[in-house]
Design a protein that fits this description.
Belongs to the glycosyl hydrolase 28 family. This is Polygalacturonase. The protein has one domain: 3 Solenoid (Pectate Lyase C-like). It is mainly β. The strands form five sheets. It has a 17-stranded parallel β-sheet that branches. Strands 5-8-13-15-17-20 form a six-stranded parallel β-sheet. β26 and β27 form a beta hairpin. The protein starts with 29 loop residues before the first strand and ends in an 8-residue tail after the last strand. The protein is built from one helix and 31 strands.
Length: 408
């Protein structure tokens, strides 16, 4: 007989958080961007002064701080050992011009850390992507956005800068900061090891497409806790684009989204393993939870990329309160597999859609519909036995959001 499958891990305090190299503020140099000529009036670019402050101290741990003001900037390159300290009543304002960003479109971020370690952002202030400046036409269904593909700088329809990105980095910490008005994705974690995101508030335009809250791509050992995410697209979106994703824990967070609150499997070809979501409140979502390897299941005829795909393994969803609201007038009956190879597919709509899973625990989950328009939604769970195995449901409840419905 083969070895028994490893049990799904119980939610604990993730020990690697306490193994991060500790940067003790009281003993760490603090560098002010004002000392390098930053103005902070929101009109003049402070990019050179901010970058100079970062370059002056990154050989050893330091804080780069911003006195009260608004600092307009092109892309800032965050270096190892540097914590950006953005205090309350201070804003970093992302530029809105193509020339504010690198030539390589995959590096279009207002703040970018690449191949860095012991790096982070904190302080209680704001990073603002000026997303409204990228709107061509405001529409309550979906805003029409600028796309820089018309310049030839990138391909695809969604050619706009993201807000904050950590690429190929280790020991990343983002805490006590607000991210607002991203033009595209907000916080992007790519091929990182040991990431802590806590006490972060994210506000995206509810009508702007593709302004995801947190995208975690090919990254391992990630903790998200005490976060407030209010956005028009997917709120927490793990992906396995170039490699697997292991050990993700999200706890004690509040999510409002017009799309999926938690979506696993978009733009993914590799395995997910050991994911825990505990004490999450989700409101106004029209897709809620999606567990799918959407792009990686042998779609050679429709998709240029061929792959056997991966599995979602050892998932735990516990203490989840989820409220659905419909945001379109479409009658239903379609599942949106975009971005990916299939596009829109005829399919019944369900509260939780599951595909390609081996090991799922659902415990103390309350699923509610905001009104009675459920003719096309009258199905809390949807899965095919051929692709889903080892599911456990305990205290799973669903129903209309009527008076007296128990959500405790």
């Amino acid at each position: 007989m083969g070895a028994a499958a490893a049990p799904i891990p119980h939610l604990t305090v993730i020990t690697f958080l306490f193994l991060f190299p500790t940067i003790i503020r009281s003993h760490t140099p603090t560098i002010s961007v004002k000392d390098f000529g930053a103005i902070g009036d929101g009109k003049h670019y402070d990019t050179f002064a901010i970058q100079s402050a970062i370059e002056s101290c990154h050989t050893k741990p330091c804080y780069v701080t911003f006195p009260t003001g608004t600092y307009l900037t092109a892309t800032i390159y965050l270096k190892s050992n540097v914590i950006l300290d953005i205090p309350k009543d201070t804003t970093i304002l992302g530029g809105t011009k193509l020339e504010d960003y690198p030539k390589e479109s995959h590096k279009w971020y207002v703040i970018l850390a690449e191949n860095a370690s012991n790096v982070g952002i904190t302080g209680g202030g704001v990073v603002d992507g000026q997303g409204s400046e990228f709107v061509v036409k405001f529409d309550q269904r979906k805003n029409v956005m600028v796309s820089w593909n018309q310049t030839g700088a990138c391909s695809g329809d969604e050619c706009r800068p993201r807000l904050v990105g950590f690429l190929d980095s280790t020991n990343v910490r983002v805490w006590n900061v607000t991210f607002t008005q991203p033009a595209y994705w907000c916080l992007h974690i790519v091929r990182c090891q040991n990431t802590s995101i806590h006490d972060v508030s994210i506000y995206g335009d509810f009508n702007t497409p593709n302004n995801d809250g947190i995208d975690i791509e090919d990254s391992n050992n990630t903790v998200i806790t005490r976060c407030h995410i209010d956005t028009g697209d997917d709120a927490i979106c793990p992906k396995t684009y170039t490699g697997p994703l292991y050990n993700l824990t999200a706890t004690n967070s509040w999510i409002r989204t017009k799309s999926s609150a938690i979506k696993l499997g978009s733009a993914s070809w590799f395995e997910f393993k050991n994911l825990v979501f505990d004490n999450i409140t989700i409101v106004d979502s029209h897709r809620g939870l999606g567990f799918q390897i959407r792009d990686g299941v042998i779609l050679c005829r429709r998709c240029k990329r061929c792959s056997e795909g991966g599995l979602l393994r050892n998932l735990r969803f516990i203490n989840i309160n989820l409220t659905y609201r419909r945001w379109t007038n479409y009658k239903g009956g379609l599942i949106d597999y975009r971005p990916g190879c299939q596009g829109l597919v005829n399919h019944s709509v369900a509260g939780i859609i599951m595909e390609h899973i081996d090991g799922l625990e659902v415990e103390n989950v309350n699923m509610k519909w905001i009104d009675g328009r459920t003719a096309q939604w009258n199905n809390p769970l949807d899965f095919r036995p051929s692709t889903v195995n080892n599911i456990s449901l305990l205290n799973f409840r669903s129903g209309f959001n009527r008076s007296g419905f128990d959500t405790q």
